[in-house]
């Protein structure tokens, strides 16, 4: 499932507003359990820095790789004042979304996935922001929800990223054994199902309902968090049926870096 470019642009802003609400009044020096090397402040600077990096790429119509270090203001405000950080996040996401809206979906621009279009970045920043919002929500004990179409598209995109990473040898740990399969089944979103089949040369996936080696069932946003390793597979909100070790192996191997 792929959303409209304009929808992604709006969603980047909405997800950032929710992230800012999680950070409001929080101890920004607190560690983020799902990104243990970061504090909440560092998480916010990462997200806001990504927004400004993409703004730079799109607004300059870059056709060559852009180092994040080239981007002015990417590191965040000089002050540790929470209000300054909030204002910096708000400004950065508007710059990012504005550049993407002005570009339109089809403008060619550089990305780490090869020369592509601005719609690549509107999709990527939507899900980058939504997943890191899950990190912030978990750190402050906030409820995490996500529109079903956004969550489903985030899963689609993540499977594409894993496939890309393995094609370019970014990750070579086996995802599982040929012949094994995983079935994801959202219990709160009709039709939100994925069948992932591991083969000799990688994996294939489809939106299908079929028996698999292991199945993961639960609310769609929680399935997404499990697949992004933001929620443990034994969390009470999800259910694992079949060979749990197959899911564990996938989760330990499926990464971009």
From TrEMBL:
Domain MDMPI C-terminal: 149-248
SUPFAM superfamilies on file: DinB/YfiT-like putative metalloenzymes
Organism: Streptomyces violascens
UniProt name for this protein: Maleylpyruvate isomerase family mycothiol-dependent enzyme
InterPro entries reported in the protein's UniProt record: DinB/YfiT-like, Maleyloyr_isom, MDMPI_C-term_domain, MDMPI_metal-binding
Superkingdom field: Bacteria
Mycothiol-dependent maleylpyruvate isomerase metal-binding domain sequence ranges: 10-137
Transmembrane segments: none
């Amino acid at each position: 499932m792929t959303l409209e470019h304009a929808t992604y642009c709006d969603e980047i802003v909405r997800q950032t507003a929710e992230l800012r609400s999680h950070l409001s009044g929080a101890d920004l020096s607190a560690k983020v359990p799902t990104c243990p090397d970061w504090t909440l402040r560092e998480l916010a600077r990462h997200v806001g820095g990504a927004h400004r990096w993409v703004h730079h790429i799109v607004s300059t119509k870059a056709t060559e790789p852009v180092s994040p270090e080239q981007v002015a203001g990417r590191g965040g405000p000089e002050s540790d004042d929470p209000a300054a950080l909030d204002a910096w996040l708000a400004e950065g996401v508007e710059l990012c979304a504005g550049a993407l809206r002005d570009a339109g979906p089809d403008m060619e621009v550089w990305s780490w996935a090869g020369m592509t279009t601005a719609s690549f970045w509107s999709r990527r920043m939507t899900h980058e922001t939504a997943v890191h919002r899950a990190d912030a929500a978990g750190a402050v004990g906030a409820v995490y929800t996500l529109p079903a179409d956004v969550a489903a598209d985030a899963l689609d995109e993540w499977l594409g990223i894993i496939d890309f990473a393995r094609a370019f040898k970014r990750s070579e740990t086996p995802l599982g054994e040929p012949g094994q399969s995983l079935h994801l089944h959202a219990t709160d979103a009709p039709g939100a199902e994925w069948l992932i089949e591991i083969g000799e040369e990688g994996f294939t996936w489809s939106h299908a309902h079929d028996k698999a080696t292991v199945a993961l069932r639960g609310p769609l946003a929680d399935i997404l968090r499990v697949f992004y390793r933001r929620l443990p597979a034994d969390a009470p909100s999800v259910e694992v049926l079949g060979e749990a070790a197959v899911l564990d192996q996938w989760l330990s191997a499926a990464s971009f870096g």
